[in-house]
Amino acid sequence: MLDAHTFGSLDTMQLNQLETFRAVVENGSTQAAAALLGITQSAVSRRISQLEQELGIDLFLRDKGRLVATRECRLLQGQIFGMVDRGAQLGALARDLRLGNSAAITLRVAVPGSLTLSILPGILRDFLAENDKVQVELHTGPYDTIERMLMDERAEVGFLRVPVQRAGLKVMPVIEAHTVCVMPDNHPLTARDHISMVDLRGEPLILLGRMRAPRRELDEAFWNAGLAPQVRVEAHSVMSACSLVAAGLGVTLVNELMAHDYDHLPITYRPISPALSHRFAFAVSAEAPLSQAARGFVEMATGRLQSLLTP
What we know:
The chain is of the alpha/beta class. Helix content is 43%, strand content 23%.
C-alpha cells in the first residue's frame, strides 16, 4: 500500500521514468529496455535511479550487472503500469483534441432551417468523413434563437445574418449573396438574364414576412420603381417560399445562397436588378474560445458556401 508521502512523490515523477521502469520489467534488462525506448543503456539506469529516489524504495537489486526486482518492486508494479497506461491515454486524447478529432468532442452547430435540406448535410458529410470520431449536435431555428443559443453556450457555432443583434458575439464573415427571383421552370421570365421590379408588375408574389429586414428592403425597391407588390402569400422561411413557387402559386424573391438548397425543385432563379445583397457569417460567443473542431468546421463550411456562389 502506498502511503500519503509516496503519493506526494508520484506527483513529481516524470512519465518517462515510469515508462522506463515498465520497459525494464517487461524486457528483463536495461539493454533490452534501451533498445525498445531508443535511448542509451546509461539513460535507462539513470531514470530507474531517479525513480527509486523519488519513491524512497529500492526497486531493483544490482547483481553482477543484472537488475533483480525487489519484493517492493513487485508490489508497486501494477500501479505503475496503470499510471503508464493512463498517461498514454491522456497523450492520445490530447493529440486527438489538438487535431480536432476526438470521441470526447460534441460540436454543437445552430443554423437556419432553410439550409438543412441539402447544403448543410453535404458539408457535415465531408466534415465527419475527415473527423470520424467527432459527434455533431445540430440545432435549427430563426436567427434570434440562434443568437440566444450562442450566448447561452447551447451552441458553439451559429450561422447568422449580419449585422447580428446581440453584443457579445464574434462574427467571421462568410459570403455576400444577392437576392434572386425564383420562378417555376416554365415561367416566361426565365428567358431573361436579370429581373427588374418593373418585370414583376402584376405577378403574384410569395414574399417573406413583413417583419423581416429583407422584406423591408424589397418593399422599398418596389416603392422606388413606383409599384405596389401583389403579395399572394406571405411565407416565413425560404423553404416555404420556394416550395410554394414549385407548386405554381407565384414567384418569390429570396437570397441566392438559401435558394440553392432547393435546386432539386422545378424552379429557376435569376438575379434581380438593381441588386440587393445579404451578408451572412458564422458567429461564436466572444467569451468562449473556439475549439479546433469548430475551427475546422467553419473553414470547411465557409469554403463550401462560397463555392455555391462562384459562377
